[in-house]
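Appendix B, example 12.
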Amino acid sequence: DLHSFPTRRSSDLGNSTLAQPGQTLVIYMGVSGLDEIVRELQAAGLPAATPAALIYRATCPQQQVWFSELADLPETARRHEVKAPTLLVIGSVVTLAQGYALPVLQP
């Protein structure tokens, strides 16, 4: 399943239906609320080790990708000074991207 929701409504993040195994979450423009997003998803039951990625300027020549686990996502963003526009992709689908020729940066 793929879920997308506006990050303006943080109450949606605590929804346990978003924290199910096999789900893929794509969050647009969520970098500024990353600490809260991670906290709420983990509180709803999403494991800390869930694969995650930050995709800066997706599909543009300047695209950059950082892979992380959910729990480490805020620190990865801070370490690399990730800014908007950035997509957050959370779920096992992230592991598939590592096999593609993307400009990938590790945490």
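Strands lie at 2-3, 24-28, 51-56, 64-69, 86-90, 104-105. The radius of gyration is 13 Å.
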